[in-house]
Structures are given as structure tokens and as C-alpha cells.
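Weekly structure sync, notes
Attendees: PL (lead), two postdocs, one rotation student
Agenda item 3: pending single-chain targets
PL asked that the sequence for the first pending target be pasted directly into the notes so everyone works from the same version. It is reproduced below exactly as submitted, 482 residues in total.
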Amino acid sequence: MKILIKDISELDCACDVIILPFTEGDSGLYNRFGDVQGLIKKAFSKEFRGKQNEVLLIPSPKPIRPERVLLVGLGKKNKVSAEKLRQAGGRALVYLRDMGMKKIGLSTSVMHSLKLSPVNFIEGALLGLYTFKNYITKKDSKSIEGITILSKSSKDLDNELRLTGAVTSAVRFARDMINTPSNDMTPTDLAETALSLRQKNVSVKILEKKEAERLGMGAYLSVAKGSKEPPKFILVEYKGGKGNPIVLIGKSITFDSGGISLKPSEGMEKMKYDMAGGAAVLGIFNAVSGLKLPVNLVGILPATENMPGGFATKPGDIVKTISGKTIEIINTDAEGRLILADAIGYAKRFNPRAIIDIATLTGACSIALGNEAIAMMGNDRELMNKIKRSSEKTYERVWEMPLFEEYKEYLKSDIADIKNTGGKTGSLVTSAYFLYEFAEKVPWVHLDIASTAWAEKDKPYIPKGASGVGVRLVLDLIKDLK
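Predicted structure, written out during the meeting:
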């Protein structure tokens, strides 16, 4: 889809439809529009008030060039924000696509008057227009061909569009991986996707089962034992700056049956999304390499299935990690923390500046936070504060949960160094404390995206299915790190 910037008036934009954003109750925003203004006032008196995400399509009076006018609500003037623009952009463009519109013009005068960037509106549009129809044989031809932003061009605006294009492309890349069914997104397929990112500044290495055994990754390999699919420990490295790297670890269970501790059948089809953390990490590398950001990054994706085969790990088994610590496995459905324990242990080899893990780790995350926030825990206050600032900018919101020392007692094993679950009580925080035991003094933050990685219904710029959460959040963090 083409995005152009043209310094022309709304009345002179040759397009199928011109989008006019409105704040609530303010019908006089476009008084200079002559006959159009009459239609707008009529609409405000009956069908449209400018409420958040409200839309109304009206025909254009002659002789203006746009064929139609779309009124889009931004909500109350004193509450319009970058996020409100993203939502309006997603709502408006999806509506117009479904109506068969091809060429779109976007008025920016109201956004500029509110000192907000129209790129936020475009970001929401690009994210909202995402579809996943790879397995649908009858193709829908409806699509937006182009958007013309009516504004003076500037270096800042051009740079914002370039960045937003890269970020939204990375989100779509991650969504595609997550939405792909597990028969076509095995650990091997995930490794091949990672290998496709190789270029001058990005290297990819795949550690096979025998190498993981040699390294002593007993926790990671214990999860893979029940599956016929070979595990793939995926390493991605980007060199774009100086100094020690940031290590991003993405939970990469390409299908999670629960293992011997089998999950209920209802909803199990969604367990293809248990590699959403790994997909987010690859999406981040996709954008960082394209933008050539001045940072060093390492990505680790411990990829495997969790299946209940004849060789599967059993509750009560004890495994040894790469760090030498032993784990008593109480529940094989608490497998994410097992693979992350070895990934964190391996990450220390890079002498990292910090480790950030992104994982669909616990169902308890949804119980605690609904589907509205990422649970965040860690041992580095400065890094967590930076992530909070990025979460406010991107609206991929995080909520900090505690890591009280008392949680260690919940994970105490009688026969091993630690057990992999402390039971239902405090399961969100004890899962993170388990990882803390392996991160130790290395600066580390855990992001539990279990409640936000999958949308159960359409949202303004997140269609039902994989959300790609974590990509925009961490990219914003990385680009602002000094």
C-alpha cells in the first residue's frame, strides 16, 4: 500500500474518500468547506457526534474532487491522544476497506491543531488492515491501494513514516508466524523463518539436539522429549553498535498440549500461539536490521513442542539445567519456565547488558490483568522504568508485579534445587521468581504476554487472532536506549 504526502486542500484531493477527523460535538472544524459544511452540520444533528471511533460515510457535493467524505470521531477534545488516533485510524481504514474503497485521503488539520502526529493515525490503519487468509481458498479482493496524507512534507514526518512502516511490518511478520497452524510452524519452520532474516548485519545459528545435550540443557530438552519434532535452539545476532548486547529471549513452544499434564481439549487449538514471544523477538530483529539501529542485540528462541509421547517427561522427574541447578518437575504444563531457564543460562555467555524475556508464560496473567496488560517483573529498576515509558507511548501497557523474597519458599523442593511450580497460589509471580533464580544478578526483566498475545475479538487496530504484542513495546525501548 502506497502512502504519499501532498500539500493540497481536502477539496482538491482526487480520491474515493477523504477522511475528516472530528472531536466530539465540534461540527465547525471545517467551516471553509462550503457545501460540505452543510452536510456535516446535518450529520451532527442526527447521525454523528464525533465520539471515539464513530464513523459516518456521506456523499460529496459537486464540484469537490473526493467522491465521498468519511467523518471519524476522535472523542472529547481534551482526551485525544496518540492512542486515540491509532484506534481511529484502524477503525476508519478497516471500515473503508470493507466498503470497497481504494484511494484514501487523510485531512490532518485537526491533528496538527492538537499537536499530534498524523503518523499515529497511519500506524493504527496499517495495523488494523492486517488479515491472515493464507488458508482460505476463496480470496477477498478488497484492499486499500493508497493513502494520501494532506500535509506539508518535512524530514521529521518522513522519518516518522519510515519508522512506522518498519515497525508495523514487523508486527505483521510476527502475527503471521503466530497465526500459522502448528503443523506448518514447527520448531524447524520457526528456525527457517529465523534463517530468512540473515543479512550483512544479522547472523543466525541453530543449535540442534545433540549440541543442546552437550551443553547440558536438560530443562529445555525435557520439554522436547514427548515430540517427534526435533527441537531447535535458535540464536540470532545483530551488530549495529558498540558495547555489550541486549539479549531478547522469546518463549517458543510451537504447540503446547501440556505434555503428560494434559490441558483440557477446549481451546487447545489456540496453543499454536505459545511461540508468540519468539515471534515477537524475530519481529523485533526484522525491524532493527532494516532500520539499522545503533545497538547490539542477541535473540534466543528455545523452540520445541510440548507433547505427551511415550518418551515424554513425567511429573516427579528431575532435570539439570545448563547452569547446573536441578529442577523437580511438578507439572509438565509449566514448561515455558523450563526452556527459559536454559535460555537465560545460555544468554549469560554474551555478558549481556540486560536480558528481556517475552513469554506467554501463565494463564494466571489473564486472571490477574484481564486482556489489557502485560505482567512485568524484574531485578533492574532503571530498565523497568524505561519499559514503562515505552508502554505508555505504544499503549502496549505493562503492569509491574512483585518479586518478594518469600516466593522462593513456594518453589522449594525436598529433592532438587527448585521445583517448576509452586501451585495455583501466586502462580503468576512465582513463575517469574523461578526465572529470577536463573537470571540472578544479571539485569533482567520478564514480560508475561499470555493475556495480550491473542485477541478473542476484533479491536480497532488488532484483528481477532495474534496481536504481535511486544514488538512495538521493545522496539520503542531499543531505539531510545543510550
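Discussion points:
- The mean pLDDT is 96.
- Residues 248 and 299 are 5 Å apart (CA to CA).
Action: rotation student to compare against the earlier draft before next sync.
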